[in-house]
Amino acid sequence: MEVLYNSTRRNGGPVTASQAILKGLSDDGGLFVPDHIPALDKSLKELASMNYKEIAYEVMKLFLTDFTEEELKNCIERAYDEKFDTEVIAPLTEAEGAYFLELFHGPTIAFKDMALSILPHLLITSARKNQIKNEIVILTATSGDTGKAALAGFADVKGTRIIVFYPKNGVSPIQEKQMVTQKGANTLVVGIHGNFDDAQTGVKKIFSDKKLAEEMDEKGFQFSSANSINVGRLVPQICYYVYAYAKLLSEGKIAEGEKINVVVPTGNFGNILAAFYAKNMGLPIGKLICASNENKVLYDFFRTGIYDRNREFVLTSSPSMDILISSNLERLIYRIAGNDAEKNKSLMAALSGEGKYEITPEMREELKDFYGNYAGETETAEIIHKLYEDCGYVIDTHTAVAAAVYEKYKAETGDNAKTVIASTASPYKFTRSVMNAIDGKYDAMSDFELADELSRLANVKIPKAIEEIRTAPVVHDKQCDVDQMQQVVRDFLGI
Hints:
Layout lengths: L4 E3 L9 H7 L8 E3 L9 H5 L3 H12 L5 H11 L12 E4 L2 E5 L9 H5 L2 H11 L5 E7 L3 H10 L5 E8 L5 H8 L6 E6 L3 H12 L2 H9 L2 E4 L6 H20 L9 E6 L4 H11 L4 E8 L4 H8 L1 E3 L20 H8 L4 H13 L2 E3 L2 H5 L4 E5 L2 H15 L5 H17 L5 E5 L7 H8 L8 H12 L5 H6 L8 E3 L4 H9 L2
Parallel strand pairs: 4-14, 5-6, 5-8, 6-7, 7-15, 9-10, 9-14, 10-13
Antiparallel strand pairs: 1-2, 3-4, 11-12
């Protein structure tokens, strides 16, 4: 059955998957959502015998129904190749009674690679399917990881350009070095004077500027997005939860049909939304555990039903989660509002205006699959230290937030169901915070000295992504204020 995509603020009829991927964001400012969640059409036992690429095809074919089998398999083959440092793509590592799903074995050592390795191929295929002659301009705001993963995916891809905005003082030194050393004639990286929410709001504003869109079309350009607001980012993320379950089943760790819990360190809400979609496809998931850092806007939302971004923005050691406006939550709000676009639109208008909204008791009842909690900086460091001391396993700061919240969940509920924790970044991406958590004596070392020491401690080879940037020259040094973002785009495109 064909899956079509509607805007969460519906303005006009539904579009195909390829059209939704091409547009990124709907003209009315809404996000594209599938008109129904398709059910898995392979048994769990059948899935358990498949590798990552085969499972990716079985999941994505159900959502991207206007792609042919050949087109989709070609995109998957090109995405999940030797760019990843392991054939299994996403290994499961057991530690301290949980299963850590390592989503950081791609070219930029963060989970964003799982979707951003395939997005350029989905996008180019979509352009071809819809007879698009314009050059596609990828416009992205990043809190650290999306930027580099998108740059790596789109660098020198014919028919595309990519512009990445990031908060100048809001990412780790390794994250920044990865971005500003990116080669590619079609790439631009810009540090903004503001935080991630400022960057994200600025990008959305540029997307919704109809006059600019008309000027771009005249010059042969059109925008699309590599952020998780693009369904071409969201759909590939569903795959790794299906894969994790299949892997546990194939290894005899769970029985067929046994429910597992999933813990996701959450900022923009795309990753945990993908797990929610997987559950609604029929994957036996019990609780969806949403882990926040000290920017605990989602924790407060799940506890009170009030989403309120009117608070201090905290810079933490898990910067990819330093977010107060979780864009993908809108997709969930639309769903629990009974797919009522007008109701969703009014809530989003309240968020944009007063900075907050409150959902109804009936909508709150629809959130019973979720559990929200948060971990502070001390708790995050403590769990990194504990895991290393207890079993020699080293995790990054974002994964540590998830692990700490999982401990709170177990203590609060007594639920000991088998649990998968989404491990969203390599510890090498946040060496200083990770090594300081293990032992404060490392504080005087440089970031690359810390990487060498981490390799010795964890007995894990330094990833290629880190080795490559040790001596790489800075290619991008542009900075701007938030109100200059559109002009930067115009200058880069020559319009």
